[in-house]
Amino acid sequence: MMYHFFKRILDLVVAMVLMVVFLPVWLIVPLLVVLTSKGPVLYKHRRLGKDGKEFDMYKFRSMVVDADEILHKKDKQLLKKFKNLDWKLEAKDDPRITPLGRVLRALTIDEFPQLYNVLKGDMSMVGPRAYLKLELKEQMKKYPKVARLGKDVVSVKPGITGLWQVSGRNEITFDKRLALDAEYARTISLWNDLIILLKTPKAMISKW
Q1: Contact between residue 174 and residue 87 where contact means Cβ atoms under 8 Å apart
Q2: Total Cβ atoms within 10 A of residue 178
C-alpha cells in the first residue's frame, strides 16, 4: 500500500529533522537527569504496538526509579486515584515525579526519545496512543461500549502525536480517547497525518 511507504518516509524525515533541530536537548537533558536524581537517563516501558505486539517505548526519566513499585505495591490510594482518572495523574498530584520531571513533562521533552522508536519502526510520528496492555484490558472493561474499538486501535502503529492529542490531550476521558484513536485508524491518510503534525505544536503550547 503506497500510504504505508510514504508514511514511513515522512516518519524518517520528520524524526531525523527533529533530532537535529533539538540536538541541545539531547546533550543537556541527560546531564540534568543524572545530576538531579538517582537512576538511568532513559525510562523504558512495554507498550502495545501494531497488531498488539509489545515493544519497549523510551522516555527521558521523569520519575523516581521505583515509580512503578510505588504505584502498584506501596500506595493503594494513589493507584486507586490513578485508575479512577483513566490511568492518568496530574503532575502536581503525582509524588513519584521529580522536580526536573515536572518541567520535562510540562514541555513534553520527556517524550523526545520516542523519536528513536520511530526510527526503529516501532512507532510512527502520528498514530493512536501506545497503550499499556493491562491499561487497555482494564479500561475496556470499564467502558464496554467502546471495547470493540480496541482492535482498530492496534491495527496501526502507535504515534508520538495523534488525533486525541490535538483534540484535548489529557483532558478527555478514556472512552473518547479510544474512539478518536479508532477513528484515526479507520481513516488513515497522509493528509490527516500532516494536519495532525501541524496542529501538534499548538496543542503542546496550550498545555503549558
Answers
A1: yes
A2: 26
Residue 160 main-chain phi, psi, to 5 deg: -70, -40
Q: What's the residue count for the chain? A: 208
Q: Up-side HSE of residue 38: CA atoms within 13 Å toward CB?
A: 3
Q: How many CA atoms lie within 13 A of 188 on its CB side?
A: 22
Nearest C-alpha neighbor of 13 from the set 193, 184, 186, 163: 193
Cα-only R_g, the chain: 17
pTM score, whole prediction:
0.90
Own/partner pairs for 78-81, CB < 8 Å, 24+ apart? none
Burial class (CB in 10 A: 0-12, 13-18, 19+), 147: middle
Q: What is the pLDDT of residues 70-125, one digit of tens each?
A: 887 777 888 888 877 777 777 777 889 999 999 999 899 999 999 999 999 999 99
Of the chain, the percentage scoring pLDDT greater than 90 comes to 65
**Cell (9 digits) for 55:** 515493544
Yes or no: say if 156 and 128 are a contact pair by the CB < 8 Å rule. Answer: yes
Which sequence spans correspond to the domains of the chain? 2-207
Q: Which residues contact 184 (CB under 8 A, 6 or more apart)?
A: 126, 127, 128, 156, 162, 163, 192
